[in-house]
Amino acid sequence: MQIGFFDSGVGGITVLYDTLKMLPNENYIYYADTSNVPYGPKPKDEVKKYIFNAIEFIIEQGVKAIVIACNTATSVAIEELRAKYSIPIIGMEPAVKPAVEKNRNTNRRVLVTATALTLKEEKLQNLITKLDNDHIVDLLPLPGLVQFAERFEFNEEIVLPYLEEQLLKYDLNNYETIVLGCTHFSFYKDIFRKILPADTDIIDGNIGTVKHLKRILEKMDAINEGDGNIVFYNSGLKVENKEKLANYGELFKRLDIINKCD
């Protein structure tokens, strides 16, 4: 059986990319809710409706596990999804815990970037309250990065001024770690690096999510020796157009470039 991946758009490709390196022989469904992206500015109840419709569709295709490769979707719906469905559903969480633990013995801060909806949701707020005893975590929404990624806009001359403007009010030398709390943001690690001090870490929750998925599959004795096939769906419509498939291919190439630079 296949593994289902869900995101509001193309951001979850960054998680699928890391999954393919760890589980290269699985078969995958990737569902991008391109008709309704972005989720971040929308009301919570509206977003929940989109999420449940997408997950119902993915399950109908026959999957053994689902990765909610979207921090916003995880924050607003993961508990209700797990209550409704019996198959494993793995969510995303901004990597606040490793960032705070790393910074605990320094005088520097942590900047968590995400969508506005993720940042204001109770799930993240509770996590920060639990971990951030020294009050070193700051929050910054970066909705423009979601819009850039959905337009396949990776031109440094366009993205860099946006990031510089958004980070202008922060003394970046005070930050030990920047947390990319939206899967779309990982497409821009190389551009973040051009702004940040050389000793500032940039982390996301992708690898932790993939390791969790692998542990669950091993526990289920459900690791397959398939052919690594990926079927793409855009809001329930199978992607068969060569140009659209090529766009997904370009995203993987973009991540190859970023990983070579890390």
How does this model look, in words?
Substrate binds at residues 7-8, 39-40, 71-72, 183-184. The protein has 262 residues and is α/β, with parallel strands linked by helices. It folds into two domains: 2-92 and 206-261, Rossmann fold (3-Layer(aba) Sandwich), CATH 3.40.50; 96-204, Rossmann fold (3-Layer(aba) Sandwich). It is 47% helix and 18% strand. The protein is built from eleven helices and ten strands. It has helices at 13-22, 44-60, 71-84, 96-103, 116-120, 122-131, 143-150, 156-166, 189-195, 206-219, 242-261, and strands spanning 2-7, 28-32, 63-68, 89-90, 109-114, 137-141, 175-180, 201-204, 230-234, 237-238. The strands form two sheets. A six-stranded mixed beta sheet has the order 4-3-1-2-9-10, sandwiched between helices. Helix 8 crosses helix 9. The longest helix has 20 residues, at 242-261.
